[in-house]
UniProtKB/TrEMBL annotation:
It catalyses: tRNA(Gln) + L-glutamine + ATP = L-glutaminyl-tRNA(Gln) + AMP + diphosphate. It comes from Methylomicrobium album BG8. It is found in: Cytoplasm. Gene3D superfamilies: HUPs, Ribosomal Protein L25, Chain P. Its main location: cytoplasm. The gene is glnS. This is Glutamine--tRNA ligase. One of its GO terms (molecular function) is glutamine-tRNA ligase activity. ATP binds at residues 33-35, 39-45, 228, 258-259, 266-268.
Length: 548
């Protein structure tokens, strides 16, 4: 039996398997349009479709819904494949709606022959006004009663490129008085002279989404065609097309609520606008809710899968709090990321009684709870760097870090005492003169308690770095509901901290490697890293609501 939590789609599938509704098969598909990068909303659909296929030993195709050539590109196709695989899934078959252009055309001819479709010369404007409203029925087009012969000839002419773009459309002949506006003779083909990234100039007419989707599902033998709630009103059309064509296979469309995540946006159109208007650095900007952006920020595939499982499936739209995603990220990174030391805002500490030129290679464990993750070497020397705010001249009550005359432990190293505070002529803090207790490596000092433990790096061995701190991209929880979402962009969503120093072991890190910078947060090495300036993105803070 299936160990996953119950949801209404699993109930439907279990029932269908029991009644042998689809010959005992489970076949799903994930059908993105290659007109942008995938976002966290798509991840919900990916985890659902591929997840169900795995769970029920069925299949899941990746199908590009490539019927809008103007907006589609090979770059998007490649990014989608990469992102699905990165999330941990592999498709049973790779398909394209454009693979079916020939069959879709033949099916359209069949609709015409059966009196179920007609060529209309109405302008898009006329089609819109004659569609009617929720309270008023639509008006029949004067072309609605064109003869089958004439329709066939005109449709062939459309195919042969005899007419201008927009001169004719093919419409399904259903019911202009239907209470469901989607059933009022929807357009199923339009003339568009545009190059298609796969079929080139083979076609000058392209099928519409609603017509293409159901037929593609039927051709692929999809059993459960899962889509978001806004398609509920399109389901009668989905079923109508397959019924008129009497296709041998009849998939079942099931709708679920789309993911909406607070403080961000999941609409490819708006994300595209952020990219093209340069409000962000690209589709993979770590502030973007795209899979590529999340990856660059350091989020793991496991965290995203966990998130998608936790939010569950419903039939009702709702907003998910960002803290739910962050919780999943933190849980995974806490378990799995290696600990290292980095100093964001360095303060020099000279350990006066430590021999000049001496270096000790200390061994620090990579993960306090997981010895199997090994250890690394961290050089200790006379001059170390500590965090500027780990020292205070006027410490607040309960301050456990370094103060004048006080002691603190350097993580994995010795206890040091601050003997002197060195300032420049203007009174700015320059460095601390300290002394160390040689008898405190791996053991407590004699006769006194030292509570504070701070992180550090050796000045000479550490590497220069820049860290990028990200905050939410928008200032309101539901930017989608704003009149103009650009008005609520957070101007402080990126803070760049330069002059940081990280421990020497990070010399071997590569972009996308993830770390916990002890006491600071979770970070991921960025592709902008160069020798002499490593760049790290903050994935998430150490604890909820704790922003340094
Ligand atoms: P967008 O509005 O961002 O352009 P879309 O639905 O037009 O999204 P598609 O490429 O057609 O984008 O989406 C592929 C699949 O992902 C569809 O089955 C769609 O229902 C699903 N999907 C898209 N957005 C979400 C979301 N926010 N939550 C859940 N599923 C989604
Ligand atoms: Mg779509
Ligand atoms: Mg869309």
């Amino acid at each position: 039996e299936n160990p996953s939590p119950a949801n209404f789609i699993r109930h439907i599938i279990n029932h269908d398997l029991k009644t042998n509704k689809h010959n005992g098969k489970v076949a799903t598909r994930f059908p993105p349009e290659p007109n942008g990068y995938l976002h966290i909303g798509h991840a919900k659909s990916i985890c659902l479709n591929f997840g169900l296929a795995l769970e029920y030993h069925g299949t899941c195709n990746l199908r590009f819904d490539d019927t809008n050539p103007e907006k589609e590109s090979e770059e998007y196709v490649e990014s989608i494949k990469r992102d699905v695989r990165w999330l941990g899934f592999e498709w049973s078959e790779l398909r394209h709606a454009s693979d079916y252009f020939g069959q879709l055309y033949d099916y359209a001819v069949q609709l015409i022959k059966d009196g179920n479709a007609y060529v209309d010369s109405s302008t898009p404007e006329q089609i819109r006004t004659n569609r009617g409203t929720l309270t008023e029925p639509g008006k029949n087009s004067p072309d609605r009663d064109r003869s089958i012969e004439e329709n066939l000839a005109l449709f062939q002419g459309m195919r042969d490129g005899l007419y201008a773009d927009g001169q004719y459309v093919l419409r399904a002949k259903i019911d202009m008085a239907s209470p469901n506006i989607n059933m009022r003779d929807p357009t199923i083909y339009r003339i568009r002279r545009v190059h298609h990234q796969r079929t080139g100039h083979d076609w000058c007419l392209y099928p519409m989404y609603d017509y293409t989707h159901c037929i593609s599902d039927a051709i692929e033998g999809i059993t459960h065609s899962l889509c978001t709630l806004e398609f509920e009103d399109h389901r009668p059309l989905y079923d109508w097309v397959l019924e008129q064509l009497n296709t041998p296979w009849r998939p079942q469309q099931i709708e679920f609520a789309r993911l909406q995540l607070e403080y961000t946006i999941v609409s490819k159109r708006k994300l595209n606008q952020l990219v093209t208007e340069k409000h962000v650095s690209g589709w993979d900007d770590p502030r973007m809710p795209t899979i590529a952006g999340l990856r660059r920020a350091g989020v793991t595939p496991a965290a995203i899968r966990d998130f998608c499982e936790r939010i569950g499936l419903t039939k009702k739209d709702s907003w998910i709090e960002m803290s739910v995603l962050e919780h999943c990220i933190r849980e995974d990174l806490n378990q799995n990321s290696l600990r290292v030391m980095a100093v964001a805002e360095p303060l020099r500490v000279v350990i006066a009684n430590y021999p000049e030129g001496q270096v000790e290679n200390l061994t620090l464990s990579n993960h306090p709870q997981r010895p199997e993750l090994g250890s690394r070497t961290v050089p200790f020397a006379r001059t170390v760097l500590i965090e500027r705010d780990d020292f205070s001249e006027n410490p607040p009550p309960k301050y456990k870090r370094l103060v004048s005359g006080g002691e603190v432990r350097l993580r994995g190293s010795y206890v040091i005492r601050c003997d002197e505070v060195v300032k420049d002529a203007e009174g700015n803090l320059v460095e601390l003169r300290c002394s160390y207790d040689p008898d405190t490596l791996g053991k407590n000092p004699e006769g006194r308690k030292v509570k504070g433990v701070i992180h550090w790096v050796s000045e000479a061995h550490s590497l220069p770095a820049e860290i990028r701190l990200y905050d939410r991209l928008f200032t309101v929880p539901q930017p989608d509901n704003e009149e103009n979402f650009l008005n609520v962009l957070n101007p402080d969503s990126l803070q760049v901290v330069t002059g940081c120093r990280v421990e020497a072991s990070l010399a071997s890190a590569v972009p996308e490697s993830r770390f916990q910078f002890e006491r600071i947060g979770y970070f991921c090495m960025d592709k902008d890293s160069k020798d002499g300036n490593l760049v790290f993105n903050r994935t998430v803070t150490l604890r909820e609501g704790w922003v340094k």
